[in-house]
Structure formats: structure tokens, C-alpha cells
Fold this protein.
Amino acid sequence: MKMTNLFAFSLMLFATVSCNGSGSDGEKGEKTAESEYLTAIRPGYEEGNPWWNGSAPRFLYVPAFQFAEIEGAISYRFTATVTPAVGESQILTFEAASPYSTLREIWEEMLPGKVRLTVTGLDGSGSPVGLSGVRSFVRDVPYKGGYPDAVRGYREAALMAARYIHGLPAIQSWKNSTEPDMSLPFNTYPCKIIGSTITVECLVAKLFPELKEEATKIAKNAASFLIAQSRPAREPLAFFPPTYYGDKVAAARAENKDRTMMMEAVTAGNAFLDLYELTGEMQYRIKALGIAETYRKFQSADGSFPIKVNITDGEPFTQYKALLTPLMEYWLRLEKDYGYDNYKEALAMAEQWMEAVPVRTFDWTGQFEDVTVDVAPYSNLTACTAAPYASWILHRPGLTEGDLANAHDMIRLCEDQFVHWDEYIGAKWNICPPCVFEQFHYQTPVDNSSCVVANAWLDWYLKTGDKLAFEKAKALIDNIVNVQNAATGEIPTTWDEYPSRQNRNGPWINCTLNSIQTLLRMAELTEN
């Protein structure tokens, strides 16, 4: 993708858009957002770009599709039949020289709604000579500005959420046990949930001096469990705690028995570092280093790692590769905070692989432990892999115009496919917009998804001065506060269940942790 126009566009945003999401400034932001939606995201007709949107269910940015070229056709008629959420049905048509044309000519006129697009090849007389393709999708409601401000301060909301997690019976049970309380079924994912529990409790110990002793005990007992469950030093996955434990939810599936997700141990490693920083006890730092060393030794010659492996021998479960942002951040933390520079080469190899494969192919597939990972490329895209790597790029020293273009493409992909600024057209339940759906295979708003996209927008804003990016991030973060339970401090994980069925199995601790950290970041940005 060429950078010149994108970079000029970001400068235009800086010059014309206010941080205020309402009133006249909000109207400016809306007009700028609308114009941005007329630029296609990595259209497949451009050299080097894949046709990434074959499974995409909806669009905010004008799309182009991989329709067939018809023998004898010299032009193509595009016919969009729109059933809008509000208003009368539309039939919009235009003709183009290629079946790959974007829908720019009718995109602004098209009302938000369900769309059936038909493309027909035409001969020189304008007569049909064949059907090029048919595609159904949702033309979603664009960003409009003026979203509700947070009902309480970001720091207050973060503290409420941290105290809520700390007070959960399944968390309190760690005070007197080194075994997880399985009344919180998500404890069946030890690295992710128990690792995040440790990090939350380390935060609680710092944020609430009166709870420091109790929080430290909880964190240490939870860490004891992870250490006891870790693989022996002589095995390929030495020091890795398991991804799955017991037989709750996805841990019970045959595809997950005796297997582990390669990137999950990063959460445990970070938890051990957090606990070391809290207590000064060297055993936790040693465990964190053991995990980092196993990753370094396990890395393939091209810098890659498999997504999922057998836990005993490390053999891959699938041909597909892991997306490496969490591990890269972990290695960088060890270098920056602790002075360990022996991961430089491995980190460089990992970054080179990320640039050569997912950045180039634009395949930001979901890699969740509770959803199968053995899926075809582009069939289960997610913002949870694209947005964090966009943030990684934006923190890279010596940022190039190409880096900015790639980060911008990823952030636009996240908004295009996963951010909902209004009720999703055709949804049968309230999704509490503005919000972010997690993945193609789980069309549900999740607080963690809002966090990763909001943080990418904040990083873009801090790097470029694009105030519209800040405005969008603020809208998502404000809504995390607004769906928070004012009485308990709970931040719902999945907002389809809010408020009548929220979190039937309890909250995902890792998701609430990201909400807490994002709220604290927003508090620091706005307070300063």
C-alpha cells in the first residue's frame, strides 16, 4: 500500500477534527470519518494485496469483492438491493470496467442495512452476458460522534473493577488454597485466567495499601498452582504452565486434551514478573526467565511458532502459525526492565516473521483457546490480533511511512469489521454500542475487544495527532465505564448478556484486567 495519501490524510485529520465528540466539533469529526470510509482497505485488485474479505459479514469502509471476470464482457453492472434498518428499500446501480470495482460510487448513498449485491457482465451493447457474482453483507452504521461520556472517572471505574475481582469468592478462595476454585469455570484455562488473577492481585496490592497483605497471599498461592502444574525442565515445553486444566468448558473438548496454545504461557510469565516486582522473591523471576528461554529454544528457523502443540513433546497440532505480538512484548519487557539482551536475535526474528507473513497477507486470524484454530485463512479474523500488532508498530523506533501505512490499515480493518457504533442491523439482542465484536466466529461484543482497539487508536493519536482516533477511543472506553455495574464494580465481559444474563459463568479475569489497565491508561492521559 502506498503511504503518501494515508499520511496526508492523517495530517488533515489533525488539522480539522476536535477531541470533543458532540456539537459543532462532533459534526466535523463525523464528516471526516465519512470521507475516510470511502477509501477501501487493502483492496485485492491492488498488486500484492490478498482478497481478505471473503468471509466478512459487514462493512463500514467501502469494499471491493473478488467477482469473476466474464468472457465477452466489456463492463459490469453492480446492483445493490438494500433493506435498511430505517427507511424505504433502495435499489442502487452503477457500471464499472472491472468486476473488482469498489462500491464507492453508491457507498455514501447506501443506507445502513442488509445488502444483496449482484454483479453482471455486459457486452458492448449493454446486454447481460453472464453473472459475475452475488454477495450479501451488512452496510453498518458509521461513526457519528456525540456518544455518551463516562458516568464516572476512569480511575474510579478501574478501582471499582479491581476491587470487584478481588472480592469474588473464587479469588478469595486462593487465600487458603493452592488449588483453583472451579466454581469459576474459566479457571480451566490456567495460564490465561490464573495468570491474570496474579496480575490483578499485584495491582490490587499497589492500588489498595490496606489490601496488600491479602492480595499478595492470593497471588502467591495462585502462582504456586501454576508452578506445580508447569512442565518439567527436561521436556520441550519446560516451565510452561498448561493452557487447559480439568474438564470445564473448552478444556473438555477432544482437540484440547493434552495440548497447549503456544502463546498462552506469556500471560503466566508476565504474572511471575509482576509478582517478583511486588515481593522481590527471586523464584518468580527465575520461573519467568525459564518460560522466556523455552520460547527462545522452541523458535523455528524462520522466526515462527505453531499455534497449538502437544504438551508433552511440542509437536504441532495444526499447520497454522501463532501470531507473536504477546511473546515479542514479553521478550522486550525482559530486555527493557531487567536488562536481559539475550532475546534480541529471537525478537528480531519474530518481528521479521510478523512483517513477512501476517502484515503482508493481512490474515489476522483469531487464536483463542476456546475456539478451534485449525481454520482456513481469513475465515475467522479478529481485532484481537490485528490491533495489538498495530500498537507494536506504532511503538517501534524509527517509524517509516510504510510502518504507519501498515498500522493504519490494521486499525481500519478493526473498525471496519468489528466496531459497532450503533445497534447491529439484524441483531436479536442489545449489544450496548459503541462496542467491539470479538471475532467472525463469535459475533459478540467483549470488553477486551473494545480495549485492544481503543488502545490502538490511542497509540495512533499519540503518534500522529489524529484527534478523530482519540475521539473514537474515548467513545469505546467511556462505554466500558457506562456498562459497568455501578453497585458492584463488575465490568461485563460479554455485553450480549448485559444486564439480564451477564457473565453466567463469571467474568473472564483476563478481560477485566485489560479493562482495568485501559481505564488507568485513559485516566493518566486525561489527567495529565
